[in-house]
Amino acid sequence: ERPDALPRDLEGRRVVVSAGGTREPLDPVRFLGNRSSGRQGYALARVAAQRGAHVTLVAASTAELADPAAVQVVRVGTAEQMRVAMHDAAADADIVVMSAAVADFRPATLVVSKIKKTGAEPDPLRLATNADILVELVAARRPGQVVVGFAAETGDESGDALHHGRAKLRRKGCDLLVVNAVGDGKAFEVADNAGWLLAADGTETELASGSKALLASRVWDAAAALLKPASG
Ligand code: CTP
Ligand code: CA
Questions:
Q1: Residue 225 Cα, ligand 1 centroid: separation in angstroms?
Q2: Which ligand places an atom closest to the C-alpha of 172?
Q3: 130 CB under 6 A from ligand 1?
Q4: Buried b / exposed e along 47-77 (16+ C-beta atoms within 10 A)
Q5: What are the Cα distances from residue 232, in Å, to 13, 77, 103, 142?
């Protein structure tokens, strides 16, 4: 969509978007990470700014992406750093979107010097669970604040991607959950996304396959519709 064709419905609103994949260090040269490119989060930030919002983008590791115009970018590495940055930025935000791929686990201990080969079998990796930032943001949400989560789901023996998305919406307690159906190379490292937009009131909207910018527009449409009229 051309920027000049976009509504200015986020004028005067503050929004926060997380993007990219967190990296959890094991030793000074190694980390646990994931394949998130950050493209969806960057598209969300760019489109929000084009619609008039004051945007903070909390960016973990991404593909080489240019900073979106007129967006405040806060760079983080680990899930814990993202957690701190998100709470900070969310404190005065109207809409908070967690599109980052947050590592669920981190190495339980950070080894201060590089782990060396010894000739013996390596120790197994011990992992610790990271805080669920989205659940925390929902718990800390200020009145009227809209909180949006993302989920990449595959079907399995217990249900399809939509079934897992519905369960995740309830578990997280957010207002909106964007569910991407993954598998077969969908969503990760590709230009297009497809899925559903699930709302806490039970509304389910199918998201046709399209660009990440188009998906971003649909997300902001839905989030803006949940905002109370701006005061003043
Ligand atoms: N999320 C988060 N903090 C975490 C993990 C996930 O804020 N520690 C957020 C993601 O940014 C996303 C949503 O929660 O908006 C769903 O992430 P997902 O990985 O699908 O959910 P999990 O609860 O981690 O469940 P799963 O076991 O399916 O990975
Ligand atoms: Ca996860």
A1: 24
A2: 1
A3: yes
A4: bbbbbbbbbbbbbbbbeebeebeebeebebe
A5: 12, 38, 40, 18
Which pair of tokens denotes residue 107?
Answer: 């190495």
Q: Identify the three-state secondary structure at position 24.
A: strand
For residue 130, indicate whether it is catalytic.
Answer: no
* ipTM (interface predicted TM): 0.99
Alpha-carbon 134 to chain mean position: 9
Q: What is the pLDDT of residues 107-161, one digit of tens each?
A: 999 999 999 999 999 999 999 999 999 999 999 999 999 999 999 998 889 998 8
Task: Write the pLDDT tens digit of every residue in 153-162.
Answer: 988 899 988 9
- For the chain, which domains are there? 7-105+126-226 (3.40.50.10300)
The residue with tokens 């909207």 is 205
pLDDT at 189 (0 to 100)? 47
